[in-house]
Amino acid sequence: MPHTTRRRILLTGAGAVVILGGGWGLTRDPKQARAPWRQASQGFGDPRLDVLAYAILAPNPHNMQPWRIRLDGDDRFTVFCDLTRTLPHTDPPNRQITIGFGCFLELVRQAAAEKGYRAEIEYFPEGEPFPLLDQRPIAHVKLVEDAPAREPLFSEVLSRRTNRLAFDTAQTPSADDLTAITDAALSSALADTSSNGVLVEDLRNLTLNAWRVEWALPHTRRESIDVMRIGKRENNENPYGLSLAGAPIDALKAVGLLTPEKLDQAGATAYQQSLSFYEKACETATAYAWIKTAANSRRDQLETGRSWVRMQLAATARNVAFHPLSQALQEFAEMREHYESIHKLLGADNGETVQMLVRLGYAGAIPPAPREPLTAKLIEG
Ligand SMILES: Cc1cc2nc3c(=O)[nH]c(=O)nc-3n(C[C@H](O)[C@H](O)[C@H](O)COP(=O)(O)O)c2cc1C
């Protein structure tokens, strides 16, 4: 393998891979795994499916796509969590997974409005599941034919990406951009942004250290490695989890340099590149956005998700790259010190919870993340 090809490979700690340049790489693109992005606008003959085809493109932790949908009657559906798709090590209380459902439900609402339907969404109709999500529904949704106001942010849904590339440190989002991103949040979220030098520096250090904890601990590291899809075939066969794709990935895999075992082996190139890729991400933040909530109910978590995707769509509209850095917010013992520091740094007092931390900046374009087809997400009643 030519040296230059190797150098163009960047593994993210969270598992995605970005290939910079290299035309021949296109033939190794897992096109099938990205098909739901191309199919969302095609029309499925049932408004619920037309809406859900957009909702499945929602951001969600580790791209686990835990949604299971049961169509009820002619105009309703129920959303459940696939309990085999949670992340017990990095997300012990299912907080992040619940936020992902909030992102999903906001896209339900936006897509419905676009098609002339008001989505009546009832959160946790059989009660809020604690301490963990269970088999009870996350939401009931009814589509009512109406003339709801269309959502301007909807035009960004197909362009939205989680961008893990190193950002251009010479460019900082403007005050105007930051205001637009904060303003997109729902009033239930305590959303804020900053490009203040001292705070940015502190957050860079904190997110970097928190990432090193997550990658150094065998069980949290393996939780990512276990769902990494390495190369075209694995991405197409299992289009959920963390995607590593492109010709150099297939080449490294073929010679045995990029395997789950190498990713898990301290000192191996794959292990080290994953670590440093994400370190670079942390180090190149030029601004941050975050959401705090006064309480931490399941409802708060869903509403956080709704604000989250709205803020990301607002960033997309302004060409601002958006990359969540959730490590310091994770609720396991070894992260405790960073969890407390981030709450202190962002002024989360009186029991407030920091639900989201995202770095903002400017970076090159990346392809959409894999998605399972809509049909794979439907369950029988
Ligand atoms: C609650 C939540 C937490 C997330 N945390 C991280 C994170 O810490 N690091 C990261 O790279 N991506 C994070 N993501 C982004 C997901 O990995 C991403 O949405 C998923 O891989 C699908 O990719 P897409 O957003 O480009 O469609 C998070 C997403 C959500 C909803």
Structure, described:
The chain is α+β, with helices and mostly antiparallel strands and 381 residues long. The chain has a domain at 42-157 and 368-379: 3-Layer(aba) Sandwich (NADH Oxidase), CATH 3.40.109. The chain has 13 helices and 13 strands. The protein has helices at 3-7, 35-39, 47-55, 95-114, 175-183, 197-216, 218-225, 231-237, 247-254, 260-263, 269-283, 298-317, 336-345; strands at 9-11, 17-19, 67-72, 76-81, 117-123, 139-145, 190-194, 228-230, 242-244, 287-293, 321-324, 353-361, 378-379. The strands form four sheets. A five-stranded mixed beta sheet has the order 5-6-4-3-13, covered by helices on one side. α8 (231-237) links the parallel β8 (228-230) and β9. Bound molecules: flavin mononucleotide.
Write the topology of this structure.
Elements: H1 3-7, E1 9-11, E2 17-19, H2 35-39, H3 47-55, E3 67-72, E4 76-81, H4 95-114, E5 117-123, E6 139-145, H5 175-183, E7 190-194, H6 197-216, H7 218-225, E8 228-230, H8 231-237, E9 242-244, H9 247-254, H10 260-263, H11 269-283, E10 287-293, H12 298-317, E11 321-324, H13 336-345, E12 353-361, E13 378-379
Parallel strand pairs: 3-13, 8-9
Antiparallel strand pairs: 1-2, 3-4, 4-6, 5-6, 7-10, 10-12, 11-12
Helix pairs in contact: 3-4, 4-12, 5-12, 6-11, 6-13
Kindly provide the name of the CATH class of the domain at 42-157 and 368-379: Alpha Beta
Structural class designation: alpha+beta
Beta-strand segment tally: 13
Largest sheet: 5 strands, mixed
Average pLDDT, to the nearest integer?
93
What is the spatial order of strands in the main beta sheet?
A: 5-6-4-3-13
Small molecules bound: flavin mononucleotide
- Output the CATH topology of the domain at 42-157 and 368-379: NADH Oxidase
Report the C-alpha radius of gyration, rounded.
20 Å
- Span between N and C termini? 52 Å
Order of helices and strands: HEEHHEEHEEHEHHEHEHHHEHEHEE
Q: Which spans have pLDDT < 50 for at least 5 consecutive residues? A: 1-24
What share of residues is helical? 25-40%
**Second-tier CATH architecture of the domain at 42-157 and 368-379:** 3-Layer(aba) Sandwich
CATH superfamily grouping of the domain at 42-157 and 368-379 = NADH Oxidase
